[in-house]
């Protein structure tokens, strides 16, 4: 990062999963230490260190961070991303800085709906623990869990509200109360915060996260392959950051339901003719890029006044445009009640 910019801050957070069956092992000894060897208790998300210029402290926090584990393959990373984006004061985001999240994992992800645990999921998790019986009663009487715990496992049905819920120690407090965020909510929060996100994942998860990145339109995201021992993390971040910083994606808050449509044209694709696009790639330091924006009213709705925001994705720069849609001509609003001879004294003009 020092080779890229002199003015930067680093922070560090970690995530495991919801401390509920079938996401983690409910046995008391595994709740304390879910790993084959001694490790920390599982948790949803923890902000280990807020953004700081102290790079030595950052290295120390990463090296000393305790590991933990979960039971099923996917992890609760979406909870972590939403908290990192929405907890502005706890994380320490600066308003006019380029915001970047490096999402590093060797597993898949849970998303909205996964918190609603089904009986099949319960049995599947029990089988992973080596329990070869079927039926709820044998599982409960074998001290895997109590009926009260099973009721708790039956589902986290409250949708994720997308708000900040970190306590003074940096822990996510709604992990057991709210479902995982949806991909749509993730997209919304990244877009609102004008953040850039790099998915640093292992080879076996590359295709999954490439699909996720493709499902996040109009935000700056990329996917890089992480070595099994993470030895290439520095190179990966540098390469993916360069990809992001060399691309400009113009975004806006126009909504089709409002009857508004924006289109973009630029010469950046070939340098000569205007072509319809909201993306310019391969931008170098010092290059100038211009866009021609066209606003169209497709149909009239009840609201006539709108506040449009237009700007590049991943940068805290926005052009605000106040729009008033004129759906009727002035002459249509006036009715003159005259019975004219030319109309044989019929009708209104």
From TrEMBL:
GO CC, alphabetical: cell surface; focal adhesion; integrin complex
Domain Integrin beta subunit VWA intervals: 1-329
Superkingdom: Eukaryota
Location of this chain's protein in the cell: Cell membrane; Membrane
Family annotation (Pfam families): Integrin_beta
GO MF, one example: integrin binding
Entry keywords, A to Z: Cell adhesion, Disulfide bond, Glycoprotein, Integrin, Membrane, Repeat, Transmembrane, Transmembrane helix
SUPFAM superfamilies per record: Integrin domains, vWA-like
Keyword Secreted among UniProt keywords: no
InterPro entries according to UniProt: Integrin_bsu (IPR015812), Integrin_bsu_VWA (IPR002369), Integrin_dom_sf (IPR032695), vWFA_dom_sf (IPR036465)
Membrane topology: Single-pass type I membrane protein
Gene Ontology terms describing biological process: cell adhesion mediated by integrin; cell migration; cell-cell adhesion; cell-matrix adhesion; integrin-mediated signaling pathway
Main location class: membrane
Family assignment from sequence similarity: Belongs to the integrin beta chain family.
Listed name of the protein: Integrin beta
């Amino acid at each position: 990062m020092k080779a890229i910019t002199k003015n930067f801050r680093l922070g560090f957070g970690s995530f495991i999963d919801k401390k509920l069956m079938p996401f983690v092992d409910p046995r008391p000894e595994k709740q304390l230490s879910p790993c084959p060897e001694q490790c920390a208790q599982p948790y949803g998300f923890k902000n280990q260190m807020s953004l700081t210029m102290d790079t030595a402290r950052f290295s120390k926090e990463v090296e000393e961070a305790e590991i933990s584990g979960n039971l099923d393959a996917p992890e609760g990373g979406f909870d972590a991303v939403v908290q990192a984006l929405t907890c502005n004061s706890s994380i320490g985001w600066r308003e006019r800085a380029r915001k970047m999240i490096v999402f590093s994992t060797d597993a898949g992800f849970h998303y909205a709906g996964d918190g609603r645990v089904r009986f099949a999921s319960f049995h599947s998790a029990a089988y992973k623990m080596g329990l070869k019986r079927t039926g709820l009663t044998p599982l409960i009487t074998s001290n895997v869990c109590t009926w009260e715990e099973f009721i708790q496992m039956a589902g986290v049905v409250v949708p994720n509200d997308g708000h900040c819920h970190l306590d003074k120690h940096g822990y996510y407090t709604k992990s057991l109360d709210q479902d995982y965020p949806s991909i749509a909510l993730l997209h919304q929060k990244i877009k609102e915060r004008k953040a850039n996100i790099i998915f640093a994942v292992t080879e076996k998860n590359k295709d999954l996260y490439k699909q996720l990145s493709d499902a996040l339109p109009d935000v700056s995201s990329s996917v890089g392959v992480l070595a099994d021992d993470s030895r290439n993390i520095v190179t990966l971040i540098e390469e993916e950051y360069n990809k992001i910083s060399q691309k400009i994606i113009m975004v806006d808050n126009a909504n089709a339901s409002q009857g508004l449509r924006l289109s973009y044209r630029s010469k950046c694709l070939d340098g000569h003719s205007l072509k319809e696009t909201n993306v310019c790639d391969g931008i170098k330091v010092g290059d100038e890029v211009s866009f021609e924006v066209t606003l169209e009213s497709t149909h009239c709705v009840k609201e006539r006044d709108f506040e449009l925001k237009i700007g590049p994705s991943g940068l805290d720069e926005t052009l605000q445009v106040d729009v008033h849609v004129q759906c009727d001509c002035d002459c249509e609003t006036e009715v003159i009640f005259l019975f004219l001879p030319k109309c044989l004294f019929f009708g209104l003009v």
